[in-house]
Design a protein that fits this description.
204 residues; 5 helices; globular
């Protein structure tokens, strides 16, 4: 049996008319290299076409008011640097995401996972009206091994946590999949020697 043919054209299975488009979507946004440490707040909102168009226009207007380039008409993704934060905006068929990437704040002393609390960082999300009902709110902290102690599971502080190694042991991921007191699902990524490219791919 030719396994190459089997992988590209499953026998006797009729493909969906949009299969190629869906597969292409996975590769439409290349990974961005990320340096450790980083703090990322990720929001996902349910949006219909009208809400998505309004959201895009309002984000573009806000960017223009600051002298920054906003998403052009018809754009599905855009990246822009605000003061102290990098925004990655994406518009999909049924949802819109805002991903804010922060550098560790200077003057905070020793790096501590999930500090400061997300309510001190989430103010940029208020610059445009909420595009739709909130689906996802993730607080992801990418930290070096030295900031995670010997038992990173304890940092999440929940009774039930999920932990896994990735990148051949060069990373450890810990979460409890539960919203914290601020409404965010916390994900701790411990960098044990990843390259920036590996860290960017894993975080995305």
């Amino acid at each position: 049996m030719d396994m190459r043919a089997a992988k590209t054209e499953p026998t006797n299975l009729a493909p969906h008319s949009q299969r190629a488009r869906v597969l292409a979507e996975v590769h439409a946004r290349p990974f961005t290299a990320i340096e450790t440490p980083r703090r990322i707040l990720h929001f996902g909102f349910m949006t219909d076409p009208a809400a998505a168009a309004t959201d895009q226009a309002e984000l573009a207007d806000h960017c223009a008011s600051l002298g920054l380039s906003g998403p052009p008409p018809g754009a599905k993704h855009h990246q822009v640097s605000f003061s102290g934060a990098l925004l990655r905006w994406e518009s999909h068929s049924e949802f819109t995401t805002y991903t804010w990437e922060f550098d560790p704040e200077e003057g905070e002393g020793t790096l501590q996972p999930f500090q400061p609390t997300p309510d001190h960082l989430a103010s940029p999300m208020s610059v445009v009206p909420q595009p739709g009902p909130l689906l996802v709110a993730v607080d992801l902290h990418l930290v070096p091994q030295s900031a995670a102690s010997a038992n990173p599971e304890r940092i999440v502080g929940a009774i039930q946590v999920a932990a896994a190694e990735a990148e051949g042991g060069a990373a450890m991921i810990v979460t409890d999949f539960q919203p914290d007191v601020h409404g965010f699902v916390r994900v701790l990524v411990v960098d044990r020697g990843m390259t920036p490219a590996q860290a960017g791919a894993l975080v995305q």
